Amino acid sequence: xTMAAADAxxxxxxxxxxxxxxxxxxxIARRHIGDVKAVDGVDLAIRRGETLGLVGESGxxxxxxxRCILRLEKPTAGEILYDGVDIANLxxxxxxxxxxxxxxxxxxxxxxxxxxxxxxxxxGEPMMVHGVEPDARRRTDRVRELLSVxxxxxNFADRYPHExxxxxxxxxxxxxxxxxxxxxxxCDEAVSALDVSIQxxxxxxxxxxxxxxxxxxxxxxxxxxxxxxxxxxxAVMYLGRVVELAECDELFDNPLHPYTKALxxxxxxxxxxxxxxxxxxPVAGEVPSPINPPPGCVFHPRCSIAVAACRVTRPxxxxxxxxxxxxxxxxx
Amino acid sequence: xxxxNEGLPPLLEVKDLHTEFRTGAGLVRAVDGISYTVDPGETVxxxxxxxxxxxxxALSILxxxxxxxxxxxxxxxxxxxxxxxxxxxxxxxxxxGSDIGMIFQEPMTSLNPVLTIGRQITETLEQxxxxxxxxxxxxAVELLGLVGIADANRRLEQYPxxxxxxxxxxxxxxxxxxxxxxxxxxxxxxxxxxxxxQAQILELMQKLTQQLGVALIIITHNLxxxxxxxxxxxxxxxxxxxxxGTAAALYHNPRHPYTIALLRSVPRLDRPRQARLDxxxxxxxDLTRLDRGxxxxxxxxxxxxxxxxxxxxxxxxxxxxxxxxCFRSHELDVTAGxx
Lengths: 332, 339
Description:
With about 325 residues, chain A is α/β, with parallel strands linked by helices. Chain A contains 10 helices and 12 strands. An 8-stranded mixed sheet of chain B has the order 6-7-8-3-9-10-12-11, with helices on both faces. Chain B has a 4-stranded antiparallel sheet with strand order 2-1-4-5.
């Protein structure tokens, strides 16, 4: 697979990534009875300054992908080349250095901030841990600056998370991610928990920060309209595998994989006239177990165009149009 | 086109409903005088963001507000001619689950984890329909077929944790429909589900409510879901209905600044990509600190001095049957400041 060969020097390159979690049975003598194949052979590249969207439904492995890249998990197999260095097997000490460059914004602004810590201390902590700004007064200044960059009053440094709304808390989470001047941020469902009116504010903020600090994002989300708005390229995952990958407009205008089509068809548009005209048949069935995925193409049990070969052969990602890859042997 | 079919009496008529919560921070008027109707067989959406009072208004109708801290402090809820607020607790129990079915967001917390699926369906039937066990069992199998669950006999033996989220929500629909209700209240029924499963569940609910002539109140924050499934819509903000009308009228000619702003703040798959989103600035109001003016005023790009003086009443604006609670609803330029 030489999918990313065209990209001169991607900031991040993932090759053959596998993350299997063992499933065991029995209380005392634990027997290994199988593996959850959360990520099962993924190749991806992200260029510097690019925002790559990673979409899919619960259990497709998109969050595990993010956790592997952050090295919160040690992958079972495969390479994660970050700026040319394989980080899949780094030790503790080297990981600390890596974390200054790669940061994360989590979904839930309620559970990802310590309720006993003041906002100033939440944002200042990474600087202390990494010895970036050892002087307390300068650290306070930096915290105030970060709050203001994220659209909050600098005096919020003295508040506790419970004194803030969901949107404000998410801004604190973003300020914390920025504290170490990272170049790459994994946004894991970063706007999913927010109300519609607040979601748009945070999306605009993420865009502003991307331009201002030349950030690269891996934007993990299930909301396709948000992904389309924010991303330059999009990868669609299903049951631990990337089934389609393309430039954003190309993917949304000409989806090739039957799963991507099903996903797009399932999103109702906020316009009754459009919806009244739009007939669609929701894709049947549910996502199969990642412990025991179906043979051949993992989507074949739900696929409307599956042929006999799909039950046997696992389709590889093929470049069906320039820069547009799909793992389906039926479409062309 | 009229807002509702004027020939028939409505199935549900909510009149000036008030629900309050006493909290440490002060009195919260979670529902502050809302009125709306639902016709037989009609699907009505209640749209709003967290804290707008949309769920509390539905729980108030069913008299499921925990007291203390909450209390319905005023209003009437006429359902098929009876005021639900005046029924005894025993009569109300017969209404819940029998005349009015309920579907909640998280099926795992609304199903009993230690009872089999079959028992949870038959319990409803034995309670409300005086069926014996054998008849209830037969009806349960029939209901699972209705909600598209194959292999009914095996499923009835299973416990909720053995089922997927989508499957559990199908069970909730089966329970809601068990006693042939006239109306179902669905509170964010698909918010916890994945998009492809959400589509399955919503299509199923639409098919069944149409087929069986059941009215549906769907409470959601998803504007796409409303557009596809609702005939009429009530938009809530800070405990009040700020706009009401047919889905077509509201989406194509919104007459309240909040509705306008809400529709404009979402990225859309059916339109070219925007350079930049147009969010509603500011935060939702603190409900313990509302003043006498319009509660959307601080975030409103159309606000004038009058808006601070009094709350604008819900009044006709736009299409027949459309109502908007804005002093300037007749002069709003929907495209003002549009990107």
